[in-house]
Amino acid sequence: MKKRQRVRNRKSQVKIPFPVVLANILVFVAVFGLSYVWLCARCDTLGQEIKRLETVQREAHRRMINEQDRWSSQVTPANLDRALKRHNLAMKLPDGQQIIRVRNGVGTATATLAYNK
Amino acid sequence: MKYKGRTISTSVVIAAVFIGLGVRLAFLHLRPSPGTMERIATGRRLEQETRGPRGRIFDRNGSLLAVDIAAKHVCADPKFIQQYGDVEAVCDAICSQFGMNRATVREMLTKPDRQYVRIQKFVREEMFDPLRKKNLKGLVFEDVPIRDYPKRALGAHVIGYANFEGVGSAGIEQRMNTLLQGVAGLRISQKDGHRREIYQLRTVDIDPQFGSDVYLTIDEQIQHFAEKAIDNLNTKYHPKAAWAIVQNVRTGEILAMASLPTFDLNRFSTAPAEWMRNRAINYTYEPGSTMKAMIVASALDCGAVRSTDIFDCENGAWFYGGTTLHDSHPYGRLSVADIIKKSSNIGAAKVALQMGNAKVYQSLKAFGFGDRTGFDLPGEDAGIVWKTDRWSKISITRIAMGHEVLVTSMQMLSAIGAIANDGIRMKPIIVRKVVNNQGQTLLAPQPEVLSRPIRPETAKQMRRLMARVTQPGGTATAAALPGYLVAGKTGTAQKVNLEHGGYYHDKFIASFVGFLPVENPAISIIVVADEPQQGGYYGGTVCAPYFREIADQTVRYLRIPPEGFTTEYVTEIDNGGSGEENSSD
Questions:
Q1: How far apart are the first and last CA of chain A?
Q2: Closest partner residue to A94 among B197, B200, B572, by Cβ?
Q3: Rounded Cα distance, A48 and B356, in Å
Q4: Average of per-residue pLDDT across B320-330
Q5: Tell me, what's the ipTM?
């Protein structure tokens, strides 16, 4: 019995030293690895975001140019003339008979009015 | 200890596997064979060249005249459509959208060995959008920029056009092609197994540079006035062609340049070459009586004659140098002032004879005839002024009435501009500025003096003489504008018969060139009609009314005050009723 007890005691007394250095290295590698993965994922996300924004910018620019083009086409003098005619708006610049020109000194009693004939 | 051997052997096997993998990885990453390396690099390489859009073209007020817009080529993958898609549905959609022949489309889509056919080129957004929304399998839309001209035919001969490769081929598009063209961008990167770009491996990323924007001196509204006027001229007189130019007298800026026949810039490929010709700068013609203004101005300037000198106009027929020179109406004795007003050929010939060949030649050159003005549009003609050693005895008398010389309308307007601008001939300018996409001004042509053919006093005297042309008794009363003194000169020249020599008796070039207001000229205008077919052929009849039409609208649009008024107050009277003051400067 004594002998058996002694053996048991010896086993329970075996202590494996905790590999601190190895643990530190593993933790460091793990942290490094995780950081690397996280950074990669972040870069990828940012890259996708950049790509998406590039597309948005291109699309916005394209739409702006198209709208500018459409607007410019609509306000062509010939188109405006046609639109006015369509709505029976006989707008034109006043001709000579419709204009009174006032010589310098307007607003004073000596102002001279002149019709253009 | 029982399992010690197994443990060791298992560990060795695992270690061997991992070491093997490690070595293989190391070889792949560190020392791959050149062939493998090349295959990997080629498969991964992504190279995209992005074309920089062409710059835009604006009028002087920033109204858009030309721009690159996004369009698509509509393409299809017939093999894919036949395997996975619906040929009939695609066929239906394309035919209904583009109005194409069904048999043709079907033939294109039923080629099992083809993976790419281009169905429709340069399709605009509004056209391809409905098709894209249908989400049809096997249809592909390729991005492609297209040059668009939102004003269509407005200023067509000035703006010109860029061809389908994006190269300027006429007008300002051609002359300013280097500045308008963008610089292509480049992106070099790598792609993954799904053919998507790996952003982290993007090594080169150069953005495309937009072409520079060109601002013209043309004013959209004045251009419209000019085009409408020559269109009206065309309706009434049916000439073969007609054209008009409006110029700022002081700076030489061209405000409008219209030419008929014209064409829609968006469909330039369907227009005949003759329609694309900018006659304002590349059509040379014998100017007729408009030349008398320059001859008389030079004669007055060099002291060969005075405005009050009297010349015998021989009652309409003068035998000189073995041939008879005629006036369109017989005149007796006319002063130099009246020679201009009545446009006497005989009187002008005698004035020229007072100067002599050498001085007439010098004056023509000083007014810029026979030389290009250096105008910023391609295709400008220099015209022809022969040297005096090629002149016959009667040449001087014919040149005085605008024959034996060939000029362009631009030259004639530039010469008249010298009279209007106190004897200073300005270089015509069509480009106001060129601005790059960062907003920096690359080019801003300044007014440039070309020559000083006459003194300011002579120019002032000539302005008054030319103003009599539009007054009662003159040849161009139709050009008179209420409120303004208009100076000008009519021209009616028989056309040269190039086949048989001599002149046609029934083919004329009618023109009127003038400026206003006389005391402080602001704009000069020339209107020319080539072979008016009906209703008259005199410059005073055919062109003067349309000069007036352009001038009338332009002076109001530019708010040019009439003679004697420095500030304009406008009161509209509604059919004689009381109006309200509605605008002032």
A1: 144
A2: B572
A3: 82
A4: 90
A5: 0.74
